[in-house]
Design a protein that fits this description.
Chain lengths: 769, 499
């Protein structure tokens, strides 16, 4: 069964039909990932390795990039200055250009070089790492670029954080407050913030491939450590015959009232501060408390036959749950006395937001996972598992979870896709310096599977030699109903790709090897560019244009070379690429002979960030809200907390989002104005209207409707005052307002209706108009 | 860049981005999307699929439950264990769950009273269902007994992949959808999960991509919330009612803004603006067409899911919808099996249990879809029928991978029970009942080791049989399973086996 798909899971090899088959089977890591399921529906398109290894949609960016094949490529037409300035400033800040900014470019537009220089100057201003607007845009982009989102935490962390423990919240799925969803957000944001920090400090962006410094919070450090703690999940080993070797700790459940209900009058919930819990001299040493959550006390129910007492517990994996607000059932057996419930988390809001660069060193040298006071003060952490770059983060390994059949091939291939924008291709004319790790079933040359496996199998050794099938450090020599995974005697692997054919001694070496890969498709040697630089530019192309750029387009390569020649300064890439006609459409390029200048809808993050920034309302779609308390088995919870945020979050959730697919060289950046987009964006606009018109502190007041509508035309629709459409647009808004009033509506409702119109206008909900 | 690579990439990109507005046009015309995209390339076989096969092809609604509800314990087939002096399955004592004889096709079977669907008290059918509905359902209702070989809630996705027996690890519902979607010309081929909520185990993946779930109220909000001033539900969140009533005014002025933007736009910009305007028209039309159905959704309950599923199929949005109907939940601790009873008889009037199944069929019937849609269940596992203390004491049931049941209701389904239960001493507690082998010719249960469909292959057999009931040719279905999957279709369970 396994021979398979071992080959077929890479897009570049997917055509080797004879090598298709099965991977994973029932030993897979579980369900496919795809939604960041903490707070409802998602749209990312990841997937775990356990099942379908074949990349979903595939695609490429190398030569033909007509992303709308139903639409013929039409003759190039120059895009107006005002139109492309709306696009570029929105990409970087979510804001609309001012008339002054427009004039800086428009005043010299007869001289294309001068106009581009003027735009470069504006981009430098807009791409200010100190600006929250820019930071949010980039964090959102980097989450996608480095594939750190899209996992389902309660499912996809079962390998790393164990089953019946860790993020596995069981059938009830309840947790106290919002520490759990915030911790999940930490996982998603960590590497994106790392990349942004490198940008902000003018470090070479290639450092993302080699960095051992990662942006972390205290809680995230605790999670990294927990992954390395023993596999002491309730149904695993560790009991050691008559001796239970698992960590002993206690939980104070004297708060259970006589009726096991939080409304009991005799209920008490003594607090055990973490400083006492970790102090060997304290009577509360290793005795954790169990107190009602602050936000959702109703989840604090013990049920069944729970006796009020201090209970003995075992294992790190269950203790970790207690830290983020989930108290597991006790005992963890069929004869449950106290049911699982949400409790006041030990992780504080500060523990979940105190971002700093943490240096990760080799060799275990860290506080205990639960020693939060020590972790709060730490900026270095020695780990047993090497952590480097984006391709070893827990989020990435959860998204691309492997198993005993796939054996890190999907992890390796996705890494190539992120770092180089290409997957393993069987057509590569390269013989790896070593075939160590090559699957024996595909070790014969001239077989249809050999080409891919000979490249990919030695590469996956980087992970397979240092991460077991659960991406942990256990390496079980014996397993029940699966393949044993004893610890290899060596580390390292081989990268054989384009010009690089070299061994690395461990996974920390992989980044430097990736950094050395050059693109081999240059028409002339002087056009040779670094493959990582090209991949980052291509990601930016999809982000800005919702379509790929032709890699052989001289203009594209010029921007890439500028990035490369400025020591991989990412702001240089932003400046050179976003001022390029590839984005502005101000001039023709080779790319536009292969695809149109794509006009796209403003997808979820883009539309919501633009509305937030233009209206001065942080996170107006509640995309970043860590919603507490969500039940399992159907998600029928009726929690009332954050009701309004949930409402708009649900609406925004129906908008398409930037995403990526397994095995695909192209990100998913749907530009289509489908009926579902139309319906969802309309509802978002209608809902936002009620939040920004005639409410305290809102930008728009019906008492001054004329000023409000003038602002809507400029800042929501993006028509600056000198725009030839400005006056007509303002007149249409006025008509809409007056017709609403004539329909018997109040001034407030009429202005809200007018805001909704401005919000739904084509220049508001699109890029490229 | 080689020509070969360009071609391949082009093809892949077409798969990724190629639909454009074709789906919308397909929805409007009723013709398949692929046909509209390129009618010149349509082959005779394609047209056969689009026209002739429509009489046999079925849309699919599947109830999935990662809780592993005890639906297997009280259904037809659970009351007649095979073997000499077999132990009996344990059932709730409630009179509402009393054993009755239920006729399915030519035979009668023991079953809990709710399955008879005639006892008003036992399924709370009072005034909720048409009098003829029960007869309609019984005439096309089958119970396929099988194992799932899973024992953890989180295994639901694995069970959806038949524990590794599907090709490329595809979920069964997605494999079906790949056949059905192009033939029906649905807006999308991917299934839609309306009952998964926040439960990751019940999400659906398609070609390795995990699909977002859409709750009934979210669907209602998107579409009937877009119903315009002519009607539709206006209860969207955030106080938007007035703004929805003002949509006619806004639509007119939005058209003016579109025209304004087109004045000096490029041709590509004009095309986008036209598409944007067209999508607005589509939303209004769809909202109008589905106004009654979606407007009656008042929650993410079973009833809401039934209505949403019917609406999605009526609008040709997707060929497969998943939902969830509770039959007792994760009832480890269930004194006197009360939860099991209450869900089966819908004691809380939430359309749980048999009433939930009836509500689905009622929703389909109301929209004239009863002959076009097949309903089925596919749960992570069943629960112990007997053989452990808590079951014998009727205080609860535990996870049980050795027995589950797939309920199938559809035009092409022959009513009856296929497979059954028998003591499986070699695979569990002494005398514990589990799924039997099956004789493929008759679909009858046979003792372990006696059937040409061993119990271990019953899930694949069920999947092949359900595929046949959906009208998918066996030649096409074969590719959906790995070579070693085994299992055979049970011809007796379907009106015909399409080849």
């Amino acid at each position: 069964m396994k021979q398979a798909g071992l080959c077929a899971f890479v897009a570049g090899c997917a055509w080797l039909l004879g090598c298709t088959g099965e991977v994973g089977g029932n030993s897979g890591a579980g369900p496919a990932a795809g939604t960041t399921g903490v707070s409802g529906s998602g749209s990312s398109t990841g997937g775990s390795a356990g099942t379908d290894p074949v990349g979903g949609t595939g695609g490429g960016v190398g030569g033909t990039i007509n992303t709308e094949p139903d639409k013929p490529v039409t003759p190039f037409e120059k895009v107006s200055t005002r139109s492309y300035l709306r696009k570029v400033k929105n990409i970087l800040t979510g804001l609309a250009p001012t008339e002054e900014e427009v004039q800086r470019v428009a005043s010299v537009e007869s001289d294309p070089a001068a106009a581009r220089n003027a735009l470069r100057g504006l981009i430098d201003t807009w791409a200010d790492p100190a600006s929250p607007n820019f930071r949010e845009k980039m964090i959102s982009h980097f989450r996608n670029v480095f594939q750190q989102k899209g996992f389902t935490p309660t499912e996809d962390f079962k390998p790393q954080l164990l089953e019946n423990a860790g993020f596995d919240l069981g059938p009830v799925g309840v947790y106290g407050d919002d520490a759990f969803p915030k911790l999940v957000q930490n996982l998603q944001d960590s590497f994106a913030r790392t990349a942004l920090e490198l940008v902000a400090t003018n470090q070479p962006f290639t450092d993302v491939l080699t960095t051992r410094q990662i942006m972390m919070t205290t809680a995230l450090m605790s999670l990294y450590i927990q992954i390395e703690n023993p596999n002491d999940q309730p149904f695993a080993g560790g009991r050691g015959g008559t001796t239970d070797t698992r960590l002993a700790w206690k939980i104070d459940m004297t708060g259970v009232g006589t009726n096991m209900d939080p409304t009991d009058a005799d209920r008490v919930s003594p607090a055990h501060p973490i400083e006492e819990v970790v102090d060997p001299n304290s009577p509360n040493y290793m005795v954790f408390d169990d107190r009602p959550p602050a936000m959702q006390a109703s989840s604090f129910r013990f049920g069944m036959g729970c006796m009020p007492e201090i209970k003995e517990e075992r294992g790190y994996s269950l203790l970790f749950q207690r830290l983020f607000g989930f108290t597991p059932r006790t005992p963890f057996s069929a004869n449950i006395e106290c049911g699982e419930h949400g409790s006041l988390p030990y992780y504080t809001a500060q523990d979940l937001s105190d971002w700093r660069m943490v240096t990760i060193t080799d060799g275990v040298n860290h506080p205990e996972m639960y020693d939060l006071p020590a972790l709060r003060a730490a900026t270095t952490m020695g780990l047993g598992m090497q952590r480097v770059s984006f391709f070893t983060t827990p989020a990435y390994l959860a998204l691309w979870a492997t198993n005993d059949s796939n054996q890190h091939r999907v992890t390796a291939n996705q890494t190539l896709l992120v770092a180089l924008g290409q997957s393993v291709m069987g057509s590569q004319d390269i013989v790896p310096v070593s075939t160590v790790g090559l699957d024996p079933e595909h070790a014969t040359e001239n077989t249809e599977c050999y080409a891919c496996h000979s490249i990919l199998d030695p590469l996956r050794q980087f992970w397979a030699n240092q991460y077991d099938f659960n991406d942990r450090n256990d390496f079980p020599a014996r397993v029940f109903n699966g393949i044993a995974n004893p610890r290899p005697s060596t580390t390292g692997g081989v990268l054989a790709f384009n010009n690089v054919n070299q061994m690395g001694t461990n996974i920390a070496d992989l980044g430097a090897l990736l950094k050395g890969v050059e693109d081999v498709n240059a028409a002339t040697p002087d056009q040779t560019v670094n493959r990582f630089a090209l991949a980052m530019a291509q990601q930016l192309c999809f982000y800005a244009d919702s379509a790929g750029c032709s890699e052989d387009d001289p203009e594209f390569r010029r921007a890439v070379q500028a990035f490369q020649n400025d020591n991989y300064n990412y702001r240089t890439l932003l400046r050179e690429f976003l001022s390029s006609p590839l984005v502005t459409g101000a001039d023709n390029t080779l790319t536009f002979s292969r695809r149109n200048v794509v006009v796209s809808v403003s997808r979820r993050d883009q539309l919501c960030q633009a509305l937030s920034n233009r209206l001065g309302v942080a996170d107006i779609c509640a995309l970043g809200v860590a919603f507490p308390f969500q039940q399992g088995f159907g998600g029928t919870g009726t929690a009332t907390a954050l009701t309004n945020q949930r409402a708009i979050f649900r609406l925004a959730g129906a908008l398409p989002a930037d995403a990526f697919s397994r095995g695909s060289e192209s990100p998913v950046t749907s530009p289509e104005p489908t009926l579902f987009y139309r319906a969802a964006s309309e509802l978002v606009c209608e809902t936002v209207a009620t939040m920004v018109v005639d409410v305290d502190g809102a930008l728009y007041q019906s008492a001054d409707s004329q000023a409000a509508m003038a602002d809507m035309v400029q800042n929501i629709m993006g028509y600056a005052t000198g725009d030839p459409h400005y006056a007509q647009a303002l007149a249409i808004l006025n008509d809409n307002y007056n017709e609403s009033v004539a329909d018997g509506r109040s001034a407030t409702d009429s202005l809200r209706n007018t805001f909704a119109l401005a919000c739904q206008s084509p220049t508001s909900v699109s890029f490229g108009i | 860049m080689t020509t070969t690579l360009l071609t391949r990439r082009n093809a892949l990109l077409t798969a990724l981005f190629g639909t454009g507005l074709v789906g919308l046009r397909a929805m409007a015309t009723g013709l398949p999307a692929w046909f509209i995209a390129n009618p010149r390339k349509a082959t005779a076989q394609d047209l056969e699929c689009a026209i002739a096969a429509r009489d046999n092809l079925q849309y699919l609604i599947v109830s999935v439950a990662s809780a592993g509800d005890p639906i297997n314990c009280n259904c037809p087939g659970a009351y007649e264990a095979l073997g000499p002096d077999p132990a009996a399955a344990i059932h709730p004592d409630s009179a509402d769950m009393a054993a009755v004889q239920l006729q399915l096709g030519a035979r009668t079977y023991g079953a809990a009273a709710p399955w008879a669907m005639t006892d008003v008290n036992s399924v709370r059918t009072t005034s909720r269902f048409a009098a003829t509905l029960a007869d309609q359902i019984r005439s096309r209702m089958a119970f396929f007994h099988h194992v799932t070989q899973a024992n953890n809630h989180g295994d639901q996705p694995k069970v959806m992949r038949l524990m590794g027996a599907t090709s490329k690890g595809e979920m069964l519902v997605s494999a079906y959808a790949k056949h059905l979607g192009p033939c029906f010309g649905t807006v999308q081929t991917e299934p839609v999960a309306v009952g998964a909520g926040g439960n990751a185990s019940e999400l659906v993946s398609f070609a390795g991509r995990s699909l977002p779930s859409v709750s009934p109220t979210q669907l209602r909000q998107l579409l009937t919330g877009s119903g315009g001033s002519t009607g539709g539900r206006t209860g969207g969140k955030g106080g938007t009612n007035v703004l929805q009533q003002l949509r006619t005014i806004r639509d007119n002025n939005l058209n003016r803004l579109n025209e304004l933007a087109k004045q000096d736009g490029t041709n590509v910009q004009k095309q986008f603006l036209d598409a944007l305007a067209a999508s607005q028209t589509q939303v209004r039309k769809l909202a109008m067409d589905l106004q009654t159905t979606l407007g009656s959704i008042n929650g993410d309950t079973v009833e809401g899911q039934a209505l949403a599923a019917a609406a999605l199929i009526a609008a040709k949005v997707t060929p497969v919808v998943t939902m969830r109907i509770p039959f007792g939940g994760d009832n480890h601790t269930d004194g006197t099996l009360t939860n099991e009873t209450n869900d089966h008889i819908d004691n809380n009037n939430r359309f749980t249990g048999v009433a939930g199944v009836m509500r689905v069929i009622q929703a389909l019937t109301d929209m004239g879809l009863q002959d076009q849609v097949t309903f089925a269940t596919l749960n992570v596992f069943g629960r112990n029928l007997n053989g452990i203390d808590k079951v014998m004491q009727k205080s609860g049931r535990d996870h049980y991978g050795n027995h589950s049941v797939a309920l199938m209701i559809g035009k092409n389904v022959v009513p009856g029970v296929y497979g059954g239960v028998a003591p499986i001493t070699s695979r569990g507690t002494t005398m514990a009942l589990g799924a039997t082998d099956i004789d493929s010719a008759t679909g009858s249960a046979v003792l372990p080791g006696m059937g040409d469909i061993p119990s271990s292959q019953t899930p694949v057999s069920m999947a092949r049989t359900l595929g046949a009931a959906l009208g998918i040719p066996q030649s096409a279905l074969d590719a959906d399973f790995i070579q070693a999957a085994g299992g055979k279709v049970v011809p007796a369970a379907v009106s015909s086996v399409p080849t």
